[in-house]
Amino acid sequence: QVQFVESGGGLVQPGGSLRLSCAASRSMFAFYSMAWYRQAPEKQRELVAIIFSGGNTNYPDSVKGRFTISKDNVKNLVYLQMNSLKPDDTAVYYCTDNRGNWGQGTQVTVSS
């Protein structure tokens, strides 16, 4: 079973940027897809970015143009570059292989 560890969260001002990282415990080469989700207090977990094995990506309208997902199959890392952050982006961010394996999450807080 694969394990994921997220890092890179923190407190940032509106308009700022953060890059989240997700480290996998084994090779991601065979993974069909990897994704980032987020969950704000009292809200359902929602998808914010997905990347497929061929490199295609998809984003919801709420983050399109601001967030970018990428992966490094050599280092077994998945990244989420977040720019132009808004207070509504405040949440715990999780990575997953879309097969039921999740990391513990990393908190992102956007506030002045």
The averaged pLDDT comes out at 95
Main structural class: mainly beta
Question: Could you give a short account of the major beta sheet?
Answer: 6 strands, mixed
Distance between the termini: 40 Å
Query: Main sheet: which strands, in order across?
Result: 2-10-9-4-5-6
Question: What is the CA-based Rg, rounded?
Answer: 13 Å
Shape: globular
Low-confidence stretches: none
Order of helices and strands: EEEEEEEEEE
How many helices does DSSP assign?
0
The total count of strands amounts to 10
Beta fraction: over 45%
Considering DSSP H and I runs of 4 or more, what fraction of the residues is helical?
under 10%
Key structural traits:
112 residues; mainly beta; six-stranded mixed sheet; four-stranded antiparallel sheet; 0% helix; globular
List the helices and strands and how they pair.
Blueprint: E1 4-7, E2 10-12, E3 18-24, E4 33-39, E5 46-52, E6 57-58, E7 67-72, E8 77-82, E9 91-96, E10 106-110
Parallel strand pairs: 2-10
Antiparallel strand pairs: 1-3, 3-8, 4-5, 4-9, 5-6, 7-8, 9-10
In short:
The protein has strands spanning 4-7, 10-12, 18-24, 33-39, 46-52, 57-58, 67-72, 77-82, 91-96, 106-110.
Report what the structure shows.
The chain has 112 residues and is an all-beta fold. It has strands at residues 4-7, 10-12, 18-24, 33-39, 46-52, 57-58, 67-72, 77-82, 91-96, 106-110. The protein has a 6-stranded mixed β-sheet, with no helix packed on it. A hairpin with a 6-residue loop joins strand 4 (33-39) and strand 5. The chain is globular, with a radius of gyration of 13 Å. The model has no long low-confidence stretch (mean pLDDT 95).
